[in-house]
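Worked problem 6 (solution included).
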Amino acid sequence: SGSAAGVWGGLVQAGGFLRLSCAASGRTLSNDYMGWFRQAPGKERNFVAGINWSGRSTSYADSVKGRFTISRDNGKNTVYLQMNSLKPEDTAVYYCAGRMGYIGVITTRYDYWGQGTLVTVSS
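Solution. The predicted structure is:
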């Protein structure tokens, strides 16, 4: 069990940057595969980025490659999403998610989700 909370979204101008953080409540993230997803208004929730337990393996959606970076600090029990060169089309509610005890390098299954944080990119 456990949950994750994504925090520190906000409003930013196009071309700007923002960092999202996801801190776990009630569990240790160090053995979990973690991911970030986003859901734009009226659209489905889509994968953005994922990172394995050690941080050595990451994956990204094509739409964010080269602009976004996922990382983790297991000592702080936190996962980050650094978002650079933001575009209006990045506007969405961003969610972090975790797969418990999974040590593989990629997954499509997640066991728990954060409550989401809104990121708005103005043009």
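Discussion: Confidence is low (pLDDT under 50) at residues 1-6.
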